[in-house]
Amino acid sequence: MELALGAMAGLAPKLGELLTAEYVVQKGLKPDIESLSKELVMMKASLEDSSRVPPDQLSEVEKHWARQVRELSYDMEDVVDDFILRVANGGKSATATDANVFKKILGKATAAVKKVKHRHQISDKIKDIKKLSNELAELRAKYTVRGAGADLAANTGIDPRVINLYKKESDLVGIEESRDKLIRMLSIRTKDDAHAHVSHQSLKIVSIVGVGGLGKTTLAKTVHDMLKKQFVCSTFISVGRTPSLTRTFEKMLVDLDENYSQVNMSRWDEERFSNELHKFLQQKRYFIVVDDIWDVGTWEVIRYALKDNNCGSRIIMTTRNFEVITKVEEIYRLKPLSDGNSKKLFNKRIHGQEGETLDDISTEVSSKIIDKCGGVPLAIIAIASLLVDRPCDDWLKVYDSIGFGKGDNTTKIMSYSYYDLPSYLKPCLLQLSIFPEDLTIDTRCVIWVWIAEGFVHLDEKEEGSLFDVGERYFKELVNRSMIQPIDDKYSRFIQQFKIHDIVFDLIRELSKDENFISILSSREQHASLDNLRSEKKTSMTRSNSKVRRLALRNHHVQQIPDDTIDMQEVLRSLNIINSEVEIMTPLHSFRVCRVLYIENSYVPISLKHIGRLLHLKYLDISFTAVDEVPKELGHLKSLQSLVLINIGLDELPPTVCSLTQLMCLVAQGFKRFPANRMGNLTSLEELRLKTVIGRSTTEDLVVELGKLTRLRMVRMTLAEELDESLQKALVRSLCSLRELQELVLSSSGSQQGATVWEDWEPPMQLRRLLVGGIFFWQLPGWINRSRVPHLIFLSLEKFAVEVQDLDNLARLPELSYLELDGFVWPPGYTVGTDDFKNLRFCDVGTTLKFPMGAMPRLEELQFGVFAGYWSWQVNGVPFEQFPTKDIIEDLDLGLHNLLSLEKVTVRVICSGATAVEVQEVEAVVTSAVENHPNRPTIQVHRMLERLILSDEHRVALLQQHIQQRYHVLWLKDEPDAWFIAHLRSYRLLQKAVISIDCAGASLCEVEKVEAAFRHAAEVHRNHPTIQLIRTNTDEMVSSSNHPDTESF
């Protein structure tokens, strides 16, 4: 069973809370609750076992039992929540009648449980134990479905991936690029290679990670077969989901040396095998592929048994579980096939060879089918196999039902992955079926929904917040390749993900079969009510099942169907996405609703009487018009998350600040915020506001922020500039936020960073930091590996970036994304082999040089190249920028050493260079990228193109002697930095003759300009001589005796 647990996980703790309530004791409810609690413990344990068994291995009795128990758990949770809310209300609404009703329901529940128990006779009764133990054991026996472990491993049939082991390389499509990159990552060299680096003789492990069906096994086998002759011994071992490690080690030894086939190893344990492998591999250069690892423990045991003997040995490990990967391994994320290779593979399966093509009609349908497969080779082969003997006219029918045909190996593999999930992850994954296909989904909002649904629970000994646990659930789903995280190229601090089509089809079917979510959707823009009811009767309901969760997506309907069983009384989650409901059922009628999610509703929504939804924990209205947000919104004392995005109102009402249990607030599209009352939201962990308008509102907000001491994430976009006083207030508030993990702050303008930022002591757990609109003169001293060791994302702006800044950032151990903006940069920077070890995205303003082994995980690189020399001043500070080629000879950047590089963006800074010099830089850098073995994409942009020098201007700037004329009145208000920048622009300057027109200037002004020129000459690197000649002295404002010329 894929779900089964229902509300069981959250119900037991709630019953435990009730046992301690004084009201419960007084009304004599304690014995009933204690009895039911015992039953629930056993039911939950049995259901967890059954959840690991695929439906085709369960009897109809077992399936029915699980469904009945799940429905019962939902009803019980509704009753308990109702009761807790009333008792929590000070007993005002908890009357004797309530007690009688509660007792009556408990009695019905107990009777229903007993009835279910009699239907569920599977395991033998346990006898001969003490009376109390016998009672509990009997309960367990009655509620225990067969153990999932051995049966599942024995009855799943042949793993379809085994077939792929016997394919010839010539039969594979699109494997060349992946194969070549994997070989480069292995850095194959012989031990006798005189130029081999020491690191190439150390054991090297490369892990191939990707979803099931993507071709990990095929790729690893291909590379193994190509390279095994370069090693003394080699083996390819498939481990699998439920491995016998002793058998695995035995096969490994026999493959490595045939002599072991004569050895009786039947009584060897894991330790004996490990010692034998250590001994055998001690002086041998070996190549081992460990295929299909499912868990960390198995990999650790195998990894420990393989000797690192400094003989240049190599290991490839494949897994769909990213959690298995350790820090000592390099990672190759296997990508789906390109569109072109997907078509080649499809055509090859249909026709038996790549050369043949399809007719126009078939091509159109096949393109849709290929796109549906998402580049997964196994999916493409499976779908093509369904079509190969069918007439082309039937292909569209297959497309409409793609993903669940008989014999679909892709579905079997993804099902295999699904049933391996822990029971707590399954409802989280199934909940994602409410979203439209191919939607990019906000990670954090989904986690808050899981919390509201009751899917997320702290273990008894677990500390932290529910969001921490939900985030762990999310990472587990990512590591198991069930969902795919997305790097948003335009908003790198937004966490999003997508669901592969095959996974989406799987969870959609599972949700429908088990009545987990009822979905109304249509490819048509309009659907008649009769058709809707017909669809509902055939696919929405199952016998006496109740609609607990309803999702309308991409649908037009007159009204929400109201003839399902008790829907308004039992509906826990209502989701309306990209849909139009002409006659909307009043939202307050869904009495026990926990989640209300409305996005892109094409008709306005009324929140009248919304305060009656006392169970509501998650309210999200996005891109949907709302008539008003009533004051009674503040009555929703259970509300944990409130998301209001572009709802057509100008003001976020003050009643929001009455929601003292609120943990997440997202508000966007409002012109006015109740900033002065935000401090009341003391349970808040996540705050996202966009855009905050007005000086007074901003002042109130940065002060109130300091009262929200449980905040873990703050994202704010401010329309005001953050001047020094606002920065001071903000930093004071930040000092109170000791749980903060993410700060994303964007303000208008370009303010100088106040020194008060040094006073902030960020929490050690800070992971993301983005500060826009503030330019720092110095990076805050706390940006170092000891103060922010877990920093992953960093985006800052600094006037002048120095080498020591880059040195400091390079040592941040977990830094993955770096965006650093600046006016001035060192012309080049050489990255050390131990620098930026985990960096995947890098955007800096200078050119980086990469030795072998540098930045092994870097995927995207954006950098600047300075084509010429330029000197200027900003805010009274002189700056100069040197050409990159002065530091990095021949612009040899070593880009070929970046093993994971996928995309390059080059900004050529044209100031101070001629057109020819700019073109030369572009040609050299483009050639380096084009010659990279990964063939990364490249974009080249010219910056400050208006400052390209003509040949004549360039010649003038290279003069050693200059003669110039200036008027005092033009220069009298310029800072010293202007004079310094001006003379610096002549890099070879030896002598300057400056004529100073004194007309209309005072003596004081003349002397100030002269002093500035003299100082500029003194600080010039060549210390040129300077001659100042005064002219038109008779036209000065006041006359005095002074020499007309001075020489220095």
From TrEMBL:
Residues 571-938 form the Disease resistance R13L4/SHOC-2-like LRR domain. Keywords: Coiled coil, Leucine-rich repeat, Nucleotide-binding, Plant defense, Repeat. It comes from the Eukaryota. GO terms for molecular function: ADP binding. InterPro entries: Apaf_helical (IPR042197), Disease_R_plants (IPR044974), LRR_dom_sf (IPR032675), LRR_R13L4/SHOC2-like (IPR055414), NB-ARC (IPR002182), P-loop_NTPase (IPR027417), RX-like_CC (IPR038005), Rx_N (IPR041118). The keyword Nucleotide-binding applies. Residues 8-92 form the Disease resistance N-terminal domain. Residues 198-349 form the NB-ARC domain. Residues 434-507 form the Disease resistance protein winged helix domain. GO terms for biological process: defense response to bacterium; innate immune response-activating signaling pathway; plant-type hypersensitive response. Belongs to the disease resistance NB-LRR family. This is AAA+ ATPase domain-containing protein. It comes from Miscanthus lutarioriparius.
